Amino acid sequence: MKHIVKILTLVMAITTLWIGLLQTSMIPSSHTWLLPIYFVVSLGCYGLLMVGVGLMNFPTCPQEALLLQKDIIEAKEYLNQKGVDFSST
Amino acid sequence: MELADRAVGFLLTFISLSIFTYYTFWVIILPFVDDDHFVHNYFLSREYAILIPVSAGVALLSFLSIFIGFVMLKSKKKVA
């Protein structure tokens, strides 16, 4: 709930800044009209960057995988003793 | 497999950073550079700064819609 308030505040601030720029025409309006597209493009770039960074630093834990395989074998042996059939899997 | 994932991640990061840098330069900095400066030779005219992102967005959206429709049709056929 707090996060969305933050995002909405940011969007409102950017919008007011943009409308202010449009009204005062400090820089030519043809340049000011480009700003929303610029924000959309930078948002897309940010998303792509986050995906790339997440993919680069994706954690793999080989030791945990080994432990898990050991656990599976142990559980299968235990259940075999109890009479559960695993031959189909 | 892990190395390929890492390479794809690096490629995505690189692409996004280069697009962001180029577009920032194009839209934010170039209006303040003189019109007859040589830097203008490396950029298309300003209309393309609108045209390219909008057309890319429309293409992405239509591709997504086609893909979703395709998946929905496929899953419907499986149920019937």
TrEMBL record, chain A:
Q: Which GO terms describe its molecular function?
A: glycosyltransferase activity
Subcellular location(s) of the protein: Endoplasmic reticulum membrane
Q: In which pathway does it act?
A: Protein modification; protein glycosylation
Q: How does it sit in the membrane?
A: Multi-pass membrane protein
Question: Transmembrane segments in this chain: where?
Answer: 7-27, 33-58
Extract the signal peptide range. Answer: none
Q: Which UniProt keywords apply?
A: Endoplasmic reticulum, Glycosyltransferase, Membrane, Transferase, Transmembrane, Transmembrane helix
One GO cellular component term of this record is: endoplasmic reticulum membrane
InterPro entries assigned to the protein according to its UniProt record, in alphabetical order: DPM3
Q: Which GO terms describe its biological process?
A: GPI anchor biosynthetic process
Q: Which domain of life is it from?
A: Eukaryota
Does Cytoplasm count among this protein's keywords? Answer: no
| A Pfam family reported for this protein in Swiss-Prot or TrEMBL | DPM3
How it assembles, according to the record, is: Component of the dolichol-phosphate mannose (DPM) synthase complex.
Name the family the entry cites. Answer: Belongs to the DPM3 family.
Function comment: Stabilizer subunit of the dolichol-phosphate mannose (DPM) synthase complex; tethers catalytic subunit to the ER.
What is this protein's name?
Answer: Dolichol-phosphate mannosyltransferase subunit 3
Q: Which organism is it from?
A: Lupinus albus
From TrEMBL, chain B:
Could you tell me which Pfam families the record lists for this protein? DPM2
Q: Tell me which UniProt keywords the record has, alphabetically.
A: Endoplasmic reticulum, Glycosyltransferase, Membrane, Transferase, Transmembrane, Transmembrane helix
One GO term of the biological process aspect: GPI anchor biosynthetic process
Which InterPro entries does the annotation name? DPM2 (IPR009914)
Provide the primary localization: endoplasmic reticulum
Keyword Transferase in annotation: yes
Gene Ontology molecular-function annotations? enzyme regulator activity; glycosyltransferase activity
Residue ranges spanning the membrane: these are: 7-29, 49-73
Compartments, record wording: Endoplasmic reticulum membrane
The membrane topology of this protein is: Multi-pass membrane protein
Q: Does the keyword Transferase apply?
A: yes
Pathway in which the depicted protein is active: Protein modification; protein glycosylation
GO terms for cellular component: dolichol-phosphate-mannose synthase complex; endoplasmic reticulum membrane
**How the protein assembles, per its UniProt entry?**
Component of the dolichol-phosphate mannose (DPM) synthase complex.
Reported function: Regulatory subunit of the dolichol-phosphate mannose (DPM) synthase complex; essential for the ER localization.
- Give the family this protein belongs to, as stated in its UniProt record: Belongs to the DPM2 family.
Q: Which PANTHER family does the protein's record reference?
A: DOLICHOL PHOSPHATE-MANNOSE BIOSYNTHESIS REGULATORY PROTEIN
Q: What is this protein called?
A: Dolichol phosphate-mannose biosynthesis regulatory protein
Protein species of origin: Lupinus albus
